[in-house]
Amino acid sequence: MIIAMDIGNTNIVFGFLEDNKITGRYRVATKNPRTADEYGLLLRQFLAMSGYRFSDVDDVIIASVVPKALQVLKAAILQYLDIEPIVVGPGIRTGINVRLDEPKTLGADCLVNCVGGYYEYGGPLLIIDFGTATTYNFVTGDATIVCGVISAGIRTQSEALWNSAAQLPEIEIVKPKTILAHNTRDAMQAGAYYSFIGGVEHTIEQFKNEVPDDFRVVATGGLSGLADKGTDMIDIIDPDLLLKGLHYIYNKNC
């Protein structure tokens, strides 16, 4: 059994994989500062909830875009599991080519999503990750990442609004029942949601205008379900895409 971890800007996802299946997945907030002991306790609890113990873990693989959290988690894994985790980064084999101007600047999460998407569904694909940022990465039919787009996520946009305007309240990010809002909260929800969906659809349409080949659109990330409710331009929703990508990478390297 291996543990796959995705350390994102908003959440850390712990996935347990055994016999090519995801047997458990858990999510905690990244922003809360934690010690190695706290992460060790969380890991013990999550393992127990899935019927495992520390001794059942054979290996750990991590994708991270938060260096400080990565350092503490690596220390926890060494202390409690006596395992040096595999970290996705330069030199690791992925089975995916990266043809960007600066390949090393591609986020580990984007790379792993592209690995998971290509080896699960083939190519060409446009992979959209709905998280703190909304990222778009295009993978060709011969397993090559050739371009990408980065924009603010819907929650990030909304937080900027209510943090910048003193009289605007914090809102829940949901699909509103109607765009015909009659109060401030509903107006903010409608504005956030429909401007977000419009941006997603326009971005996909622009890819279709500029890419000569037909492609499928795969969505992942914590807010992918919210996006799927408002558009028919997404072909596949796979919230476990990154965990699957980590598993593929692990098998290529171990």
From TrEMBL:
UniProt xrefs under HAMAP family: Pantothen_kinase_3
Pathway note: Cofactor biosynthesis; coenzyme A biosynthesis; CoA from (R)-pantothenate: step 1/5
Catalysis performed (reactions): (R)-pantothenate + ATP = (R)-4'-phosphopantothenate + ADP + H(+)
GO BP: coenzyme A biosynthetic process
Residues annotated as catalytic: 109
Chief localization: cytoplasm
Positions that bind substrate: 107-110, 184
Full protein name: Type III pantothenate kinase
GO MF annotation list: ATP binding; metal ion binding; pantothenate kinase activity
Enzyme Commission code(s) on record: 2.7.1.33
Taxon lineage: Bacteria, Bacillati, Actinomycetota, Actinomycetes, Bifidobacteriales
Primary role: Catalyzes the phosphorylation of pantothenate (Pan), the first step in CoA biosynthesis.
UniProt xrefs under CDD domains: ASKHA_NBD_PanK-III
Cofactor binding remark: A monovalent cation. Ammonium or potassium.
Enzyme class: transferase
SUBUNIT field: Homodimer.
Keywords: ATP-binding, Coenzyme A biosynthesis, Cytoplasm, Kinase, Metal-binding, Nucleotide-binding, Potassium, Transferase
Protein species of origin: Bifidobacterium dolichotidis
Subcellular location: Cytoplasm
Family classification: Belongs to the type III pantothenate kinase family.
Binding positions (K(+)): 129
Recorded GO CC terms: cytoplasm
Cofactor (UniProt): K(+); NH4(+)
Top-level taxon of origin: Bacteria
Binding site for ATP: 6-13, 132
